[in-house]
C-alpha cells in the first residue's frame, strides 16, 4: 500500500509542477477556487457534468459488483475508469475553452487530463496494480 500512496503523491506533484510551468509559459493567471469545488462554466455545463457523474456512478457500481462477485479483471475496471475520467475532463476543458471568461484554463485541464490518463494507462498497460498494492503474484 505504501508504493501506491507514494505513486499517487508523485503523480500529484508532477501535475502541480506541470501546471506551474504551463501557467508561466502561457501567462495564465491563477484564479481563486475552493478546494474540491465544482467549477461549472454555465448551466449547460452543470447539467452535462451531472449527467456524466451520475452515469459514472452507475457504471462504477455495476463494475464493482462484477469485480467482486464475478471475478472481472481489475484492469478492465481501470480501463472503464480511464474512459469515464477522460470524458469528464474533456467536457470540462471544452466548456472552459468555449464558454469561459478564461479560455486558457482549458490548457491546464487538458494537461491534467493527459497526465492522469497516461498514468492510468501505464498502470493498465504494464499491469502495475500488483506491484503498487504489494499483492502476491499468482
Automatic annotation (TrEMBL):
Q: Which UniProt keywords apply?
A: Membrane, Transmembrane, Transmembrane helix
Q: Superkingdom, according to UniProt?
A: Bacteria
Do the record's keywords include Cell membrane? no
Keyword Lipid biosynthesis (UniProt): no
Species of origin reads Planococcus liqunii
Query: What name does UniProt use for this protein?
Result: DUF4181 domain-containing protein
A Pfam match is DUF4181
The transmembrane residues are 6-22, 50-68, 74-95, 107-126
